């Protein structure tokens, strides 16, 4: 009997967080999975890293994204594609109510409290601030390739290196 060469493969969707990557047209995604320990009967976080095809560069570092596996590998390491950016970094929306969230509280509740008791000088004004991405390459350097500096060379003036010590 001959096997059918066009077998169907199930497409799965995964939720992950975008982390810095040096690949062109691809985003590195960290996917959290729960690993069960039989000895103490508890689940522990286990992280898996995959590369997702992102030619439009829609996701930035820290964004929560929805990815889908590809029917065939694009390259040796790129096995998924970015479907949508679910939550941009720092702009969380409650999926049930659709309201914006600050920590544990809704933004509109915090603004109502500020109206009742008077606003503080230190209160962040979300409506007056531009959306994320307007300060790119001015104050937001998440689009730059950050590298780790392993030696202290006085002639190395690269501003996008980080000293791990």
TrEMBL record:
InterPro entries linked to this entry: NA-bd_OB-fold (IPR012340), Ribosomal_uS17 (IPR000266), Ribosomal_uS17m_metazoa (IPR039193)
Sorted UniProt keywords: Ribonucleoprotein, Ribosomal protein
Gene3D superfamilies named among the record's database cross-references: Nucleic acid-binding proteins
Pfam family, one: Ribosomal_S17
Family statement: Belongs to the universal ribosomal protein uS17 family.
Protein name (Swiss-Prot/TrEMBL): Ribosomal protein S17
Organism: Xylocopa violacea (Violet carpenter bee)
